[in-house]
Amino acid sequence: MPDKAATATEPSAQRSASGVEEPDRDGAAGRRAAAAPSARLDVARLREDFPILARTVNGKPLVYLDNAATTQKPRVVLDTIAAYYTDINANVHRGVHELSGRATDAYEGARERIRAFFNARSSHEIIYTRNATEGINLVAYSFVRPQLRAGDEVLITAMEHHSNIVPWQIVTDGTGATVKVAPVDDRGELQLDAFERLLSPRTRIAAVTHMSNALGTITPVREIVRLAHARGVPVLIDASQAAYHMRVDVQAIDCDFLVATGHKLYGPTGIGVLYGKEARLDAMPPFMGGGDMIASVTFDRSTWNVLPYKFEAGTPHIAGAIGLHAALDYIERVGFEAIGRHERELLEYGTQMLEAIDGVRLIGTARSKASILSFVMDGVHPHDIGTIVDREGVAIRTGHHCAQPVMERFGVPATARASLAMYNTRDELDALGRALRTVHEVFG
Ligand SMILES: Cc1ncc(COP(=O)(O)O)c(C=O)c1O
User: Fold this and answer.
1) In this predicted structure, what is the pLDDT of residue 291?
2) In angstroms, what is the span from residue 36 Cα to ligand 1's centroid?
3) pLDDT in tens, 237-263
4) 3-state secondary structure the chain
5) Can 402 be counted among the known catalytic residues?
6) Active-site residue among 402, 425, 433, 443?
7) Please, which of 259, 275, 307, 335 could form a disulfide with 132 given CB 3.0 to 4.6 Å?
């Protein structure tokens, strides 16, 4: 029996930028697809990198169209996490021993990778969180709440995910401050003039999604930030959806804060990112107290560690950060240009396919949208659609997509949602189309 640790460091293994040795980071189809960034994606090859895509569900090949909920993971992410636990597992920032040093290097290497991915100025501006939700809560509690006075406002939009609604309701509750909502039009586009009118001298933050998970709408984030900053209002961008479909550059957007979530970026669950401008983060109190976030502790008082550690209390998700590093490397190798082109073609194909089905109505038809096909079908509840297409191996989402207010805006309790990622194909959309025709047959 080969020793397990030895298998992870075979001769073909290499030390990745994250410092974790892994069997074949370079041999992935992602690298081949990325060899010529302007070329078309070789999706068949790319799919070989995602082991789960080869499985069957209910006796049919899996057609995974629930990517807005979470994306599947390329083998390199799975291998990198296994190699971390197999080779260098130790706690970070705490030990002088070899493994702790290597785990720390890998963990901090991942932070640098994230910095470069989002083009932040400094890795001090990259805070690890559990997910996007925690990042928004951190800003709500540490940045906004201490400032709130009666009459203050938080400005969001009508198409936010619950994670960018509820934290603002909680922190404003009992303060006399209120949450204002900028409307969307019938296509699902943000009404920018109304957004501008709602910015007031009492607005303490504008918190806006970069891409709606329920509608697919891409919001004009640079313009949003420009309008808000012209009135001295800081901006948080929720890039949970946008970040795996397009390049998100925090310096170009000029946002004060931005959140993203690892499991949608082809990375593991339980790891997320909060970006904040250094001056903002420096001025904020810690969110949670515990180990690693302190400079000194006595029973009288404690002082805080420097950025980014001030916001990272307790043992972090080390394997998650390192896995996210591998995922971001993978995305970069494939390239956003190729991903964007492929997903736009699929979106157009899927839109036409759905529009051709009797009784189907798309919810969310913004001129600028990505990778989301949200729809309702006359006389059929979305849950029934989801259940029937699942029998054909097709995984879509049905429900309110954690965005109940936007469902209300469109007068529907729920939608069925097919959401696309880099590995999806026209054949899969055809499989969805066939499954939807079965729904028609069942409901007559
Ligand atoms: C637009 C948007 N924001 C925030 C979130 C929350 O992400 P997480 O649950 O990983 O914190 C999601 C997840 O679906 C989302 O789509």
Assistant:
1) 93
2) 32
3) 999 999 999 999 999 999 999 999 999
4) CCCHHHHCCCCCCEECCCCCEECCCCCCHHHHHHCCCCCCCCHHHHHCCCHHHHCEECCEECEECECCCCCCCCHHHHHHHHHHHHHHCCCCCCCCCHHHHHHHHHHHHHHHHHHHHHCCCCHHHEEEECCHHHHHHHHHHHHHHHHCCCCCEEEEECCCCHHHCHHHHHHHCCCCCEEEEECECCCCCECHHHHHHHCCCCEEEEEEECECCCCCEECCHHHHHHHHHHCCCCEEEECCCHHHCCCCCHHHHCCCEEEEEHHHCCCCCCCEEEEECHHHHHHCCCCCCCCCCEEEECCCCEEECCCCHHHCCCCCCHHHHHHHHHHHHHHHHHCHHHHHHHHHHHHHHHHHHHHCCCCEEECCCCCCECCEEEEEECCECHHHHHHHHHHCCEECEEECCCCHHHHHHCCCCCEEEEECCCCCCHHHHHHHHHHHHHHHHHHC
5) yes
6) 402
7) 259
| Lookup: tokens for 140 | 């709500």
* Distance between Cα 24 and ligand 1 center (Å): 31
Mean pLDDT, rounded, for 171-192: 98
pLDDT (tens digit per residue) in 156-167 = 999 999 999 999
**Reported confidence tier of residue 11, pLDDT bands at 50, 70, 90:** very low
What pTM was computed for the model? Answer: 0.93
Q: Are the beta carbons of 77 and 266 closer than 8 angstroms?
A: yes
Pocket test for ligand 1, best of 66, 163, 265 (most atoms within 8 A of CB): 163
Query: pLDDT: is 441 or 73 the higher one?
Result: 73
Residue 26's pLDDT is what? 39
Ligand 1 binding residues, C-beta < 6 A? 68, 131-133, 161, 163-164, 209, 213, 238, 240-241, 261, 402
Residue 349 tokens read as: 């194909």
Work out the number of other CB atoms within 10 angstroms of the CB of residue 384: 16
Distances (CA, A) of 425 to 126, 157, 278, 397, 435: 34, 32, 41, 18, 16
Q: Which domains does the chain have, with CATH numbers?
A: 98-330 (3.40.640.10), 337-443 (3.90.1150.10)
Pocket test for ligand 1, best of 129, 133, 372 (most atoms within 8 A of CB): 133
